[in-house]
Amino acid sequence: MKSKKRIETAMNLGTPDRVPVMCQLSTGHYFINSGISPIDIWFTSEGFAEALVRLQKNYKFDGILINLPGRDPDYKKYILNIEEKADEFVVKWKNGCFTIVPRNDNPHYYQPDGSRHFPSFDDLNPEKLFYVEPWDITEISYPYKWGFENEVRSFTDFFPPYHADTIKIVKEKTDGLISIHSEVFSPWSQFLELLNYENALMAIMDDPEKVKACLERLTLGAIELAKLHAKENVDAILISSAFAGAGLISREHYSEFVLPYEKRIIKEVHEEFNIPIYTHTCGSIGDRLDLMMETGTQGIDTLDPPPLGTVDLEEAKKTLTGKVFIKGNIDPVNTLLYGNKKQIEEDVLWRLKTGKTGGGYILSSACSIAPNTPPENIQLISELAEKYGAY
Amino acid sequence: MHEIEELLKQLAQRIIDGKKDDAISLTNRLLELNYPPKKILDDGLLPGMDVVGVRFRDNIIFVPQVLISARAMKSSLAILEPLLSEAKIEGAGTVVIGTVKGDIHDIGKNIVAMMLRSNGFKVIDLGIDTSIEKFVDAIHRENPQIIGMSALLTTTMVYMKLVIERIKQDSLPVKVMIGGAPISRNFADQIGADAYAKNASEAVMVARELIGIKDRNLHE
């Protein structure tokens, strides 16, 4: 069975030839291990696409998650200079701002004085919101402008033409053999990224109705983007809803500020496209798997085990089997980063045995794989799945 | 006296409810009645924050509720701090705190900093994306008893180990306390941290233990 079919079968809650493997890697891991310059990976569609494909091959993953948007091919015209240091690059922009690109971690964009700018909740007019991209090459502006563009794009033509470039290149490079997934940010995540988390979380206490008006608007952009990805024939769409777990908000707030908006995205995309949509939420979600399923999601990603999160895979299988597919549950820190070969084998084999029962399981790290995780530890996952993951 | 007791009770409740404007009014009213600033802190603000800490620890309330309580507390403290300083009331100790390099998430760290300040600690907040050098410089500059490190991401928590290695290598006389969503006691032991705090209210208790202060009994 080909990789693409293997994942498709698991996403359809079936039993492929063996348990498929697909992990999400941190940006820093691509920087360290792909052999491509961090500058090219972060700032170009071609560089990131090549890094995604190289590491998919190295680790024999059955799928690729494209979790950065395509980049403006003319980005270089905004650069003043690039300073190369031992452990990082400093990209100085003509507007006086700068981006620090570590050789092993996520880049960040800063104002000339080294600060990061966020709009205030009082300043927000919900009508001016449509979509917020946390991984643009500049900071999040309000009203939102892409990269160094001067004008706010019309909501009828909001996503720039290069936005899907990485998807197109990865699809071309993988020749239809690998399952290609794209990412759309949950309205809740967009709202948190827009205001900075602390201000956003206080906003739901101060003026919940205005927050809901903002989320309504951000839902429209997420629907539009998901449909654009579906038109590019990705094999699945991931809703990134990282900060909706019990580490931050209650079940009641989840029901109020997360569930209805993700539900609407899934419903409206499904009215037009027959494409799997699944949800990535980090940390403690053991208490809200039922609410996550109410969104209509077809799969739940990460399922962080203790101590990172609260999900016991055996319990989760009882709740989720036959309803949604499961992707995840290997501890990326204590097992993959710090564990020895024996520990990794034990951990992965237990998950293979537990997860494959009843089908609908994709073996994966729970959250992203840390930058300095030894490649041989990741290779071991696929080796074990090939050897012991057969149905 | 009855009026003061009633006002203190109301102040504690407004802190619990996160009502900033009410907390400011009540603090000013108590000062007008010549109630000592230190006693407003001890008898009104701290009992309120203690309840918040316990409810947060027990998953009765979550981060948004804690944040608005902390905001109310901060507003009242802003009125009291100059008066406390004039009266030369000494703090519990000094904590240098930061989110580790690579991580730009500051919410957990901010809550811990606020709770520590609320409990009399002097807190030097190094902000986000804090490098080893920034921690070490701050130790030399501020002479803290405790370094607090926070991380939200599984990809950045590993940086804590590098900071601890450097502190040990340089024999710096500080205790290290760590926390954050993906952090566990096992991880703290594994990287050689002196203490781990599961949440902000536990962080206060742990900090007090680390510098030998007997803790108040936290209960509702």
Structural class per helix/strand content of chain A? Answer: alpha/beta
Rg of chain B: 18 Å
Order of helices and strands of chain A: HHHHEEEEEHEHHHEHHEHEHEHHEH
CATH class of chain A: Alpha Beta
**Number of structurally distinct domains of chain B:** 2
CATH class categorisation of the largest domain in chain B: Alpha Beta
Distance between the termini of chain A: 12 Å
Question: What's this model, at a glance?
Answer:
Chain A has 391 residues and is α/β, with parallel strands linked by helices. Helices cover 41% and strands 14% of the residues of chain A. Chain A contains 15 helices and eleven strands.
Question: What would you say this structure looks like, in words?
Answer:
The complex is a heterodimer of chains A (391) and B (220). Chain A is 41% helix and 14% strand. Chain A has 391 residues and is of the alpha/beta class. Chain A has one domain: TIM Barrel, CATH 3.20.20. A 7-stranded parallel sheet of chain A has the order 1-6-7-8-9-10-11. In chain A, strands 2-3-4-5 form a 4-stranded antiparallel sheet. In chain A, helix 6 crosses helix 7. Chain A is globular, with a radius of gyration of 20 Å. The mean pLDDT of chain A is 95. With 220 residues, chain B is an alpha/beta fold. Chain B folds into 2 domains: 85 residues, Methyltransferase, Methionine Synthase (B12-binding Domains), Chain A, domain 1, CATH 1.10.1240; 118 residues, 3-Layer(aba) Sandwich (Rossmann fold). In chain B, strand 3, helix 7 and strand 4 form a beta-alpha-beta unit. In chain B, helix 1 packs antiparallel against helix 2 and helix 1 crosses helix 4. Chain B is globular and about 55 Å long. The chains are: A alpha/beta (391), B alpha/beta (220). At the A-B interface, helix 7 and helix 13 of A face helix 4 and helix 8 of B.
List the helices and strands and how they pair.
The complex is a heterodimer of chains A (391) and B (220).
Chain A (H helix, E strand, L loop, with lengths): L2 H9 L15 H7 L4 H6 L1 H15 L3 E4 L12 E6 L3 E6 L4 E5 L5 E3 L54 H10 L4 E7 L1 H9 L1 H10 L1 H24 L4 E5 L10 H7 L1 H14 L4 E4 L8 H6 L4 E4 L10 H8 L4 E6 L1 H6 L3 H16 L4 E5 L9 H14 L3
Parallel strand pairs in A: 1-6, 6-7, 7-8, 8-9, 9-10, 10-11
Antiparallel strand pairs in A: 2-3, 3-4, 4-5
Helix pairs in contact in A: 4-5, 6-7, 6-8, 7-8, 8-10, 14-15
Chain B lengths: L1 H16 L2 H13 L4 H21 L5 H24 L6 E7 L7 H12 L2 E5 L6 H11 L3 E5 L8 H11 L5 E5 L5 H7 L3 E2 L3 H11 L10
Parallel strand pairs in B: 1-2, 1-3, 3-4, 4-5
Helix pairs in contact in B: 1-2, 1-3, 1-4, 2-4, 3-4, 4-5, 5-9
